[in-house]
Specification:
The protein has 10 helices and 9 strands. The protein is of the alpha/beta class. It folds into 2 domains: 147 residues, 3-Layer(aba) Sandwich (Alpha/beta knot), CATH 3.40.1280; 73 residues, tRNA(m1g37)methyltransferase, domain 2 (Trp Operon Repressor, Chain A, Orthogonal Bundle). The strands form 3 sheets. It has a 5-stranded parallel β-sheet, with helices on both faces. A two-stranded antiparallel ribbon has the order 3-4. A two-stranded antiparallel ribbon has the order 8-9. The chain binds S-adenosylmethionine. S-adenosylmethionine binds next to strand 5 and helix 6.
Length: 241
């Protein structure tokens, strides 16, 4: 997949995609094309923003440099504007975007970008949450990271992606590692029992219970099987530990 990003501070994106997602580019699972908007300034000051029509605070990113930057990209694919006014990003959207061959992210700064650019070129506006960042670069990094995890071969063990929180509408639940005892805190006994069926049942029940505790909104939407209902009831009554 080809990922293009138009940004005033593209270095933010490069420095944040490290580890497994950084390797995705090294191993050519995806290509990253960072377009520096500063290279497309249309004035002698090298700026790409101007004061807003109608007055008001801050500056607005001009249409012309954005248009030129977009035209410098061979295959833009879907054009996504990062904006706190967009639809909230989630796991489903990450999978949907990861299936595209080409995608282009537009990262705003200041008060955002001229609406005429959005009207003419943007296919979708995405927000990473109901808060305001100073720029779209971090939002682009968040989305790209989460998209890349869903590309085959990016995470060594694909099974781990399928078991991640949100992949099936619930949270993953607790994780433990060595030592088995630390400051009198014990790892749940079942996890060290070696009984694979019991461990799988405990993990499923723990995942349901954690979802119920932390995200009752998600839990309400789950359609539990009879087995899951029994496992959760047994977990809550302490029978599974
Ligand atoms: N004045 C704008 C508003 O109130 O809608 C906010 C502009 S914000 C300071 C500058 C840029 O940061 C935006 O153009 C967008 O690219 C990015 N940004 C801010 N919050 C975001 C969010 N929650 N999700 C995605 N991008 C965001």
């Amino acid at each position: 997949m080809n990922i293009n990003v138009i940004a005033l501070f593209p270095e933010v994106i490069k420095s944040s995609l490290v580890g497994v997602t950084g390797k995705a580019f090294e191993n050519e699972k995806a290509k990253l094309n960072l377009v520096d908007l500063k290279d497309f300034s249309t004035n002698s000051y090298g700026s790409v923003d101007d004061s807003p029509y109608g007055g008001g605070e801050g500056m607005v990113m001009c249409i012309e440099p954005l248009e030129k930057a977009l035209r410098s990209i061979c295959s833009t694919g879907k054009v996504v504007n990062l904006s706190p006014q967009g639809k909230i990003f989630n796991h489903k959207k990450a999978i949907e975007l990861s299936l595209l061959e080409n995608i282009t992210f537009i990262c705003g700064r200041y008060e955002g970008i001229d609406q005429r650019f959005i009207d003419s070129y943007v296919d979708e506006e995405i927000s990473i949450g109901d808060f305001v960042l100073s720029g779209g670069e971090i939002a682009a990094s968040v989305i790209i990271d989460s998209m890349l995890r869903n590309l085959p071969g990016v995470i060594g063990n694909q099974d781990s992606v399928n078991k991640d929180s949100h992949s099936h509408g619930k949270l993953k639940g607790y994780s433990f590692t060595k030592p088995a005892t630390y400051n009198n805190q014990e790892v749940p006994e079942v996890l060290t029992s070696g009984d694979h069926e019991k461990i799988a049942n405990w993990k499923l029940a723990n995942s349901l219970w954690v979802t119920k505790q932390k995200r009752p909104d998600l839990f309400e939407q789950l359609q539990l099987s009879e087995k899951e209902m029994i496992l959760l009831r047994d977990y809550e009554s302490g029978k599974l530990s």
